[in-house]
Amino acid sequence: MLVGITITSNKVKMKIITASFLASLLFMVLAIKTYLSDGDNPFFIDTSEVLSRYEPMLNANRTIGWMDEQIQKRMSVFDDSLAKVLDSLSAGNKSAKDFLEILNMESNVIRHKMVDSIGNIAETMVAGAYNQFDESVASFCQANGIEVLFGTASNFVVYGAKGKADRTGALLDYMGVAHE
To answer: What percentage of the chain reaches a pLDDT higher than 70?
Structure first.
């Protein structure tokens, strides 16, 4: 024996259909409102664009470039001096060859020390610029009520799509950086 409710009245059927339609319409309106509201969307910034315009990072890169140029100049002078010594020692006696080998090893040590020192300085400068960037982003998020801000790196999107969720321009404005 089947137990069930059979609705035979057209009036009751119309009430159920109307109630279902209104409930669907209500959920659709809520979904659209949620989609269009800024506070509920995840936000992201184009990290590459912001960092390419961020003054502390630009300063670090300029300083590192200048230091690299200085090392290249010093190494050029050193190489010229070394070439002159090598020419003068080309007589071929045993003590000259030993001296030449020691001189070559010392020149390699000097090169590595110079490169290592600029590497350490560069690492410190870039870390400082990133720390300032993190502080600026945290301040921006607090000022704009953003709980989560995703970033991109090397055009790899962590989360977000260009459009309403993109806050790159707003962050650049907040930091006082010119942009398109």
So the answer is: 74
Q: Please return the burial class of 75, using the count of CB atoms within 10 Å of its CB with bins 0-12, 13-18 and 19+.
A: middle
Instruction: Extract the tokens encoding 37.
Output: 């509201």
pLDDT tens digits, 32-69: 665 566 555 667 788 888 888 999 999 999 999 998 89
Pairing type for strands 43-45 and 149-153 reads parallel
pTM score, whole prediction: 0.57
| Whole-number Cα distances in Å, 129 to 47, 134, 165 | 13, 9, 26
CB contact set of 95 (below 8 Å; sequence gap of 6+): none
